[in-house]
Amino acid sequence: MSDRSTTPPDDFTAVILQVFRTNGQMIAWGDHFSAPFGLTSARWQMLGALALSPAPLTAPQIAFNMGVTRQGAQKQLNLLLDEELAQKQPNPYHKRSPFYQLTDKGQALYQRVATDWNQHAKEVGQAFSSQELATTLKVLSRISELHETTE
User: Fold this and answer.
1) pTM for this structure?
2) Cα distance from N-terminal residue to C-terminal residue, the chain
């Protein structure tokens, strides 16, 4: 055991390094989880962004909401279009930035994945108290706010 005390910058750095590790692990886990559905984590993420939105979104809106680059979101959206899981709609406010929404096929696929995910979330979620999860969400949201950038 070390007698060395940590400072807030040390503690914050440790948190961020853990976030990076966890992100990498979750992407790899998500690729494995979503593979039986013919998806990758990235396409599953785009499906979810569209499925959970109350209105169609543009690629920049999806990118912002999901914390990815516009180009990364566009690449995955193009794959979803090719697979007929999503469709474009004209955007009267910006001709070069169409809205995207799920097709019936995309919605059905998302529902199948969501069913399995909800079971997993129920099982894993039992390892934490509601207070632990609320605190984690609050801290991660605040870190995100403090580091928000625009493209």
Assistant:
1) 0.86
2) 44
